[in-house]
Amino acid sequence: MSSRLEAEHLYKVFGRRPDEAVERLRQGAGREELRAEGTTAAVIDASFTVEPGKIFVVMGLSGSGKSTLLRMLNGLLEPTAGQVRFDGQDLTALGSRELRQVRSRKISMVFQHFALFPHRSVRENAAYGLEVQGVPRAERVARADEALALCGLAGWEKSWPDELSGGMQQRVGLARALATDADLLLMDESFSALDPLIRRDMQDQLLELQKSLKKTIVFITHDLNEAMRLGDSIAVMRDGRIVQIGTAEDILVRPADDYVASFTQDVDRSRVLTASSVMDTSVTGHEADCDCPTATPDTPFVILCAISARVTHPVAVVDPRHGVVGVVPKQRLVGFMGDQAGEPSPCVSRRERGEKVIARA
């Protein structure tokens, strides 16, 4: 599948002689070294691709460079070096007028603090991007109302922003982005200002919309649980650099370094992991031919635990033809719930390691 969005070796440096600073960074200079000289390297050599219809999450602590990176993707900030390509078009080579056209028609942004006009109705706020495009009034009203209905705001079209809760205001911001039918949505900490329950409700709303709309989304967050819930793939940033890109399972099970591992230690693993993450693949190639409960590679961890609780032997993980592709001993489940790597202890019996499950399954 071809990439819809590509970032290639992006740098953003603020301060004196930014081009010289980029060259020094390429030669190994550190961020702190440049900062001591009055230059801030906000993003350093960032590269990634986003496939059509996927949610790409960029996460990191404050000051890691994630919001600066997002603003380079739609030209709000010009990269000091590197390229951004959208559907094969080099956005970094466009003039200001061409870039405004791309932003108004192909790329929409959903902000953290709603950015609604208080003197405009909910409908007028949702239709604002279409108004900028010059869409006739009747069409923009129809499209705005359709987007509001998708976001659960049918019946609120004539209300004012201050009559809405924070979660509802954020839905208006999302509807405004959807009304333009942009191919790419950029979401900058869009749910961070919301209360936890409302925030989870907005995550549910986004995932539900994504099932039908299949937008390409870049989502910025500092919350790892949110990243793992939303992201088809996740980039972890630290001090301006992307230190790891992978699925939620990749980052949780195979962290690139101690920094990423420290991020994941408090994550509820049962909401992320599947059988494919925790199974022992050293015992494979047999067919499960009994009535014992089995799992598939994409069986959620919580269901896998429930299956394991019902049997005395390791759970067999099977493919569509019922062939065993791995087994999950109870000790392995316990290991993955904690800080363990998930490997069975050397003192685990042959039966618990899965050698007998093949005979029974």
TrEMBL record:
Gene3D superfamilies: P-loop containing nucleotide triphosphate hydrolases. Keywords: ATP-binding, CBS domain, Nucleotide-binding, Transport. GO terms for cellular component: membrane. InterPro entries: AAA+_ATPase (IPR003593), ABC_osmolyte_uptake_ATP-bind (IPR051921), ABC_transporter-like_ATP-bd (IPR003439), ABC_transporter-like_CS (IPR017871), Gly-betaine_transp_ATP-bd (IPR005892), P-loop_NTPase (IPR027417). It holds the Pfam family ABC_tran. Residues 5-264 form the ABC transporter domain. It comes from the Bacteria. Transmembrane segments: none annotated. GO terms for biological process: glycine betaine transport; response to osmotic stress. One of its GO terms (molecular function) is ATP hydrolysis activity. Signal peptide: none annotated. Belongs to the ABC transporter superfamily. NCBIfam families: proV (TIGR01186). This is ATP-binding cassette domain-containing protein.
